[in-house]
Amino acid sequence: MNNSFFQPQRQSKTGIVLLFLYNVGMVIKSLWVFIILFFVKKDRVESWMIILAILAGLAILIIAAVSQYYNFKYYIDEENEEFVIHEGIINKSVTKIKKENIQEVNISQPFIHRFFNIYKLEIDTPGSSEKEVKISALTKQNAVDLKKYLLAASKLENTLEENIEASIKQELNKARSLKISTLSILKYGITANYIQSFLALVSLLIYGFSEINNLLQKIEIDTKLDYDTIESQFLAFSIPVILGIVLVVIILGIIINSVKTLIKYFNFKISENNQSFSFEYGLFTTRNSIVNKSKVQIITETQNWIQKKMKISFVKFLQIGKNEEEKNVSAVPGISNDEKTKLISTIWKENPVFENCLKPNFRLIIVNTFQFIVLPLILFFIIDKNLLIKYWFLAVIYIVLVKIFILIYFKNLKLFYNERFIRLKSGIWDIDNRTFEVEKLQTVKISQYFWQRKTNLGSITFYTSAGRFKIVALNFIKLKKLLNYCIYKIEIPKKINDN
């Protein structure tokens, strides 16, 4: 353990450069519209004024970076077992974190940090979805030593440091590693998030047109975009042209999503030891996350038809921290089916096999048809029946597509269970299989509407640390038996603890 941590100290001196670059980035991000406007009108401004403004801006940013550096101090209060942070230039603040409340400490090396050979340390505590504390510029040794102390179980770490380090080295030697190939990550990027990519690109185009319109108005150019005219001209195109434009946008969205996925998950490595998995990945920003095997609550396997043919999946592990209300999600993209099976078997000591399956009754199709087809068309007819009549072919396309989605969703919706596990399968294109242990359920409820009594149908809701999951239109008699079994399995550990 580095004893200097018990005295206030600053970050690495290269942190001044890093803070300066961060400040420059924040200014550009916040004022990019005005910067473009400035260069558009630069002919109206004298050259010496431009140079003076740039120099003044750089001087302010440098002073701010130096002030941030010298006012940022951190140390360990050994007596109270607290980690203390002093920061701020004008409005100074002191943050104190109890060692026992520290849930996770992550060390990463973003792209810019690599040039200065420094690391960023983030401390996560219960009660916040974001990182509580960030120390942006640490040497690797300081970051590792600080993480080791903050995550240590007791004060005995100082006296037992040599034994701990020896056991860690021994454990790392025994660790089993796995690497997700770049090709597998690229396959996942190409075959995932079509809708999100399409909507994101459309939103970006709309935002870009809006900002350009505002910019043209500010520089007093009479070029206001008439969206009504654009819409009428767009609809004047033939349907093949419109479909071609939509296809191009989708392809661009897929390309952007593939590049984004590749950058985020590049060089994905999985290291395993007896207690946990360690995930390390990232091209520009190296990230690291830990999956504690004993704390895993839910494993979600996501796979669409194309990914099934390519034999790859997207797997999410949800684990609970000390607070049990705080959840941490780690994911593995593009993992092969064999590797996925081994990973899940290592966590749960077995690969779940299900003997029982419950499927929803066909009446669910009728309910969903009324909810997503009949009701929307009735409302649209009441609001503007002429428009509905005019574009009747669009209504027909809507009915056909939604009906297909309803049928696919009904076919995929299933509830599997055995003595130890429950799995919920759902989805239309991306099929999700959420698996959790019966013993880790918080509670289970079943319900039945009065009109379902004759048909013997009902619904069941599983309450977990990750939220609740509900499936409807199932055989109510079988749901009662499943409910009784789940309650029995939930109560057994409580009785053992009470005794």
Automatic annotation (TrEMBL):
<feature type="domain" description="YdbS-like PH">
    <location>
        <begin position="412"/>
        <end position="485"/>
    </location>
</feature>
<feature type="transmembrane region" description="Helical">
    <location>
        <begin position="46"/>
        <end position="66"/>
    </location>
</feature>
<feature type="transmembrane region" description="Helical">
    <location>
        <begin position="389"/>
        <end position="410"/>
    </location>
</feature>
<keyword id="KW-0472">Membrane</keyword>
<feature type="domain" description="YdbS-like PH">
    <location>
        <begin position="69"/>
        <end position="150"/>
    </location>
</feature>
<dbReference type="InterPro" id="IPR005182">
    <property type="entry name" value="YdbS-like_PH"/>
</dbReference>
<feature type="transmembrane region" description="Helical">
    <location>
        <begin position="234"/>
        <end position="256"/>
    </location>
</feature>
<protein>
    <submittedName>
        <fullName>PH domain-containing protein</fullName>
    </submittedName>
</protein>
<dbReference type="InterPro" id="IPR014529">
    <property type="entry name" value="UCP026631"/>
</dbReference>
<keyword id="KW-1133">Transmembrane helix</keyword>
<feature type="transmembrane region" description="Helical">
    <location>
        <begin position="364"/>
        <end position="383"/>
    </location>
</feature>
<feature type="transmembrane region" description="Helical">
    <location>
        <begin position="16"/>
        <end position="40"/>
    </location>
</feature>
<keyword id="KW-0812">Transmembrane</keyword>
<dbReference type="Pfam" id="PF03703">
    <property type="entry name" value="bPH_2"/>
</dbReference>
<feature type="transmembrane region" description="Helical">
    <location>
        <begin position="185"/>
        <end position="209"/>
    </location>
</feature>
